[in-house]
Amino acid sequence: MEIAPDFFNYFLAALPLLKTDPKLYCVSAWNDNGYETAVHDPRRIYRTDFFPGLGWMLTSELWAEVRSRWPSGYWDEFMRRPDVRKGRHCLRPEISRSYTFGEEGQSQGQYFAAHLSRIKLNTDFVDFLSDTARPLRHVENEETFDRWLINEMSSCVKVTLAAFNSELAGGQGKCLRIEYRDSMYHVFASRFGLMPDEKEGIRRTAYKGVLIFYFQKHRIFLYDTWPTSFS
């Protein structure tokens, strides 16, 4: 595994949040949809309901909670189980801080050529420990992140998938929000080049049904329910 220049800085900055927030159970270096074309800002960190793995941190308290049940293989699937996650979140970056070159391994190269090998590794150093910039302030707790997410989505232009192409023709650098139905998610995933699967009923990178990514330099929020019911 290769790591980004700010890999340890990111984890050190996130550790106090992991220790104090009961709604967090991991910090991950990985974005499952972190392709070169789907990411932009190395400073952006998000909460997610989906356990990303591939370079992650947990507390000794969580280890004590799960160690007696720790599986001999596919521990990422274990960490996604509802009885393990218990409604808790992970932190994950927009641009991955880890990159796997392990084409061979326990998963026998599953998804490597089509997916894992295409994930972008961050090359810029971001000082997440900076008291001035405070790049993690919007993820400090669930309520703060929910407010931040609602504000971000509210500032975006709402479009349908059918009207998306015409919106693209209107220029670059827009923020767009698009509503989807989970039963039709494969259509949206195919259109935007996202991983189409789900684990334990959660789409990769999703937070309360919202997925955030870039497409042709536009920032996109996919959502299945408008987040008025957030905490």
Automatic annotation (TrEMBL):
Keywords assigned by UniProt, alphabetized: Glycosyltransferase, Golgi apparatus, Manganese, Membrane, Metal-binding, Signal-anchor, Transferase, Transmembrane, Transmembrane helix
Pathway the protein takes part in: Protein modification; protein glycosylation
GO molecular function, one term: alpha-1,3-mannosylglycoprotein 2-beta-N-acetylglucosaminyltransferase activity
Main location: Golgi
Database matches in InterPro entries: Glyco_trans_13, Glycosyltransferase_13, Nucleotide-diphossugar_trans
Membrane-topology descriptor: Single-pass type II membrane protein
Enzyme class at the top of the EC tree: transferase
Xref: Pfam families: GNT-I
Family: Belongs to the glycosyltransferase 13 family.
Protein name: alpha-1,3-mannosyl-glycoprotein 2-beta-N-acetylglucosaminyltransferase
Species for this entry: Perkinsus olseni
Gene name of this polypeptide: MGAT1_2
